From TrEMBL:
Keyword Membrane appears in the UniProt entry: yes
PANTHER family to which the protein is assigned, alphabetical: DEHYDROGENASE, PUTATIVE (AFU_ORTHOLOGUE AFUA_2G13270)-RELATED, PTHR45033
Lineage of producing organism: Eukaryota, Fungi, Dikarya, Ascomycota, Pezizomycotina
Transmembrane regions: 173-199
Keyword annotations of the record: Membrane, Transmembrane, Transmembrane helix
Protein name: Enoyl reductase (ER) domain-containing protein
Top-level taxon of the source organism: Eukaryota
The Enoyl reductase (ER) domain, residue ranges: 12-237
Organism: Arthrobotrys oligospora (strain ATCC 24927 / CBS 115.81 / DSM 1491)
Single GO term (MF): oxidoreductase activity
Amino acid sequence: MMKALVIEKTDGKPGQVYYPLKQVDLPKPSIRPGEVLVKILAAALNHREVFIRQHLYPGINFETPLGADGVGIVVETSSPDLEHQWKGKKVILTPGRGWESSEDGPEGKYAIVGGTVGVSHGTLQEYVALPASELEEAPGHLSIPEAAAIPLAGLTAWRATFTKGKLRAGDNVLITGIGGGVALFALQFAVAAGATVFVTSGSEEKIARAKELGAADGVNYKKEDWSKQLKGLLPKNRP
Ligand SMILES: NC(=O)c1ccc[n+]([C@@H]2O[C@H](COP(=O)([O-])OP(=O)(O)OC[C@H]3O[C@@H](n4cnc5c(N)ncnc54)[C@H](OP(=O)(O)O)[C@@H]3O)[C@@H](O)[C@H]2O)c1
């Protein structure tokens, strides 16, 4: 058996409930052909878990362990080839399912791992069985908790910044709510790509921290004239 975290059903309408967390014992998963067994070493949280507990997320499921992000070590494989490639490696688990071939977006029925009906596991469980194609080797320069924090927010920010936003060096970009997990990844990606980044936040400290991370400047969205202030910060010679 293994330990896992799920939400417990209580009475209440979506947005008004906050389902408690419950630790449960589940059978340790067994692997099928093409799969590997990963022992989870660290899992990260996203705002998604809060939305799930408030019943504000689509397709929530009280039986499926929570958690979309995780890092683990491959402890069992289903073939000699997979054993050679993966056994003993530290890996990042991809947070989505049904999206393999196109960078532009899901090509089939798409689901995010953890707490929902689309996938039978989450990362808030001790062991996960999953197809080897859903693994990436964890970068050696990151600690295990650092690597665990990357998959969902990092991928979301990457797609927003480059796949959808088509950001290029020299662009001026606005990232709203810079205290957010996705926003912080987008900031670091955009700065690394050579863009000039402006931010908004409800907190002066978070704007100051964003500037330490490379933002050009920022405004507080709680101020009534924030959009005017922002316009005043933009370079005058922009196209
Ligand atoms: N996490 C993911 O991987 C993921 C994946 C897909 C979609 N999303 C979606 O992306 C959004 C952000 O997710 P997250 O995980 O980054 O959430 P988060 O870490 O909770 O960040 C939310 C941020 O939104 C900002 N905010 C709140 N009120 C605002 C307002 N009135 N105007 C501007 N900004 C405001 C706040 O910024 P300040 O603290 O700076 O004030 C807050 O820190 C959510 O809608 C989420 O559903 C997230």
